[in-house]
TrEMBL record:
Species for this entry: Ameca splendens
Source organism phylogeny: Eukaryota, Metazoa, Chordata, Craniata, Vertebrata
Protein name as catalogued: FA complementation group F
Pfam family, one: FANCF
Amino acid sequence: MEAVLRNVACTVELLAVAAHSGVVSQWDEQTVSRAFRWATYCEHIYIRFHSNPVIRGVLEKQLQLTNHSLKEALPEYNEVSFWDLGRCQNLLLLWMLNNSALPISIMKMLFETRVSVNNINSDYEDVRGLCSQLIQCRSACKVLHRLLGLPTVGAEAQVQGEMLMERLGFMLSQNGDSRWAEDFLSSVLQEFEGAAQHLCPVIAAALLTTTDSAAQTASQNFLLDWLQSQHGVLQHMCSALPSKLLADLAKKHQKFRDAFCKLLKKWASEMEYRINEGEWIHTAANSTVSFQKMTEHFLTLFEACPSIRTETEDELQALKISDGDFDVRGLSVWGDLLLALSNEAHSSGFFI
């Protein structure tokens, strides 16, 4: 076990070098190949021990020690979690490409096309054309998603979402204690702090993962309950993700549908009419919510879940009446919202 801990620590140090050190300028193809082999080793460690709480705990303690020493030496260093070990090759590639010291020769080697790779007799073909392969895989995923009508969350988010569900399922199966799972989600949230745009697709992918057992359904329900308690994450999801993806989530999960509809009405209540601009503006600080986006979300939600259309329309009508039941633009956000929904529905052939 000592050898495993030492190897993991050395690989994490290798990731730090790849991301922040000028030593990368001296790397050649052989060095890069060895680096990826160590990254693959860490992925195998994750696969082998992620469901073993004792060994996982030992590995996490080692990661904490290594992260602490690296953070002291490199203030800009991004800590590596146990979860990150499962995507170690991706991290190595990403951080290496973001290091300005990476030689052009290595970049060319990574971006070689499959044709040129096949024409080269090399002992290190495992890394040649790696970026080109990833691009091809992602392009294929996008095509398949369109052909099959699957939600487009991205290939990486899809994989991370499945890993998230797998990990939650294991934690929730341990003595029925949910605190471990709550702590895990809190740590994931901390890791994505300041980068919520990357976390939201992962959560969406996790919630859209096909469930084949009661345990998987329980994991998604747990994630939904946690999401409802994290108002900031929920709000960012609903403002950042495409309407179609949000509608898919609402169609599959009633808890999400109720929370999404409630949030849309909250956004409307927080809007004020700017006479000079001639439109409704969301008053929250740094908000990306617009009246048009809110209307689009409502329409897509109604199309995906027709059962809530009448009830929601009645609620909006009651709120309009409480505002004075004005039909003049700019006096009631509810009246203008109902009018916009009606106009958009008629123009798209969807009637409310």
